[in-house]
Write a structure and sequence with these properties.
three-stranded antiparallel sheet, about 625 residues, five-stranded antiparallel sheet, disordered C terminus, single chain, alpha+beta
Amino acid sequence: MKNDNKDTLKKKKKKVHGSLNINLSKSEFMNNNEAKSNRLFCKICLFAGFLVLFCLVLNEAGVFRIAPVIMRISCLASAILFFIPFVISYVLKRNGDWVKYFMIIDILIVVIMLYSLLSYHVMMLWLFPLVSSIIYFDKKLVHFAIFTTIPAILLGHYLACTFLLLGDDPLRTVQAAMLYGALPRVILFLSIAFIARQVTKKASKMLTNAIENSNEIGRMTSGIQLVMSQNQKLMGTRDIRILAGRLVKNLGDLLVLMLKLENRPVGTVGVLDGDKFYTVDSNGNPNNICRDLGDDIGFEFNNARFKLSKQINDATSYAEEREGFVNIRFYDHGKLTGFAIFRQDVESDDYSMKEVLNIYTYSTTSIINNTMLTFDMFRTQEQLAYSLAVVSENSSQETGQHIRRVSEYARVMGKYICANDEQLETFRIAAMLHDIGKLMIPKEIIEKPGRLTAEEFGVMKKHVIYGRDIIGNAPGEVMEMARHIILHHHERWDGTGYLGVSGEDINKFARYVSVCDVFDALLSRRSYKPAWSAQKVYEEITSQSGRQFDPSAVEAFKNCYVDMLKIRDQFPDDENDEENIITANSETIVTAETDKSTEEAQKKKALPKINVDPAIVTPISI
């Protein structure tokens, strides 16, 4: 029965991982690469075999003037040896680890034979085994090629001097052959071998890093997709006790996936039911283990004691690692509404696990609180979207106010493209997720104080693809619209955006979010630029009509400009800093149609610092 459970867990993990292949290891990659490299090596040998036969034809035609008998023997024998790797890999279909070493030895035999018969005419062939070994990205094979080629060079020169089949060879004695032939060529070979070794070492290191990064991205994406998939199923839950049972199962599944566990960890989940906490164990069975301690609740779990405060000022939900445990607490405006404790160690430097747990905590908090308040599914979906978006902005040290403002800008501008109030609400919520893909971008790029290099900007541009993949196939109208907004919100009307999509081919909702996002970014101070004045932002966006932005979106922006500035006032980054508030009324708003004399007053307004995506610099530089 225990083995059956293990098989079931393995099948579930395999199904969840899907095509991301997050179990990829360097050894597995090298095994796959070895078979491909063997076939490539065979093609190289085939080409070399036909090449020596072509040289034989040229010699027979009188182009070369090498003794016919010597040339025939050397070329025909070499061609046969060059064809042997093809027979091994393609005919006999052998791909063991020994095959690549055999191929190096086979080539060395060919080179020794050719040099013994043709001497300096084939001098460059000494590099053939070394160069061929590089295609495997295997340092051991490169070392093997180096240490077998050096004695081969000495042997080849000795045999060439001994046979002396070519009369024009100037090295006629063993001493001359070794001193003036083999020695300088060994030195030259070692110089090239050192370079080859360094290239292989660096390539191997880059390969290891690439595989690790790919695995982490796949692992993190799989975890986020699982959280979103699970939470979508929780959104219709109305019974808080049923919710607790599903939560304990979902978190167990998440830990199994992220940590590649063979067995589900033991845990418990508690949710507030009235004035008491209803708890279930990892099998979904109620255990009611919480004790009321006045301002706290206390319980014992797996031979450890826990005490949680019922009310904490300004508390937010969080996940933490206590030695041997994963501890998650859910708060709603400082009030404890739920918790989850699992008996499982998490490495302190496991960034992906911590980020996924944070996402789980934020999203699950919304679901618990909304279920307790009996909100409908659509409102719960809004909270999920906002929570995920907050995590993405916090990863780049931005505030959640940017998300709220962009969402509210979308609500105002969306009146010009949404068919009804329901679609407008969907658009407002979907706009929150426009930058969720930044979770996959390295922090050193997101938080870089200066402008990005071309390579860094290339990585940054991928956040639209990552964001689309994070949303995946999550059901619901909000997620469907969010997929298009995420993918296209950095496209330009003239086709010079991230993906090169232009005009009407850009999703219409993404065109409006693009204006909202740039509007808020330009009004905000960055580490590498001051905040723009409202007048300058207005002029910049309107000047980009038909270039960066959809003309109809710019017209909507003009009509909504006053309302958008009011939203900027309503959701400032620092409510206590009155200097950061733009007074949005008809007397102070400056547009292209009004007197520009107030522009200087607008410029003097100090706007708050919001550290967001450094790739969004100005509409011109995007």
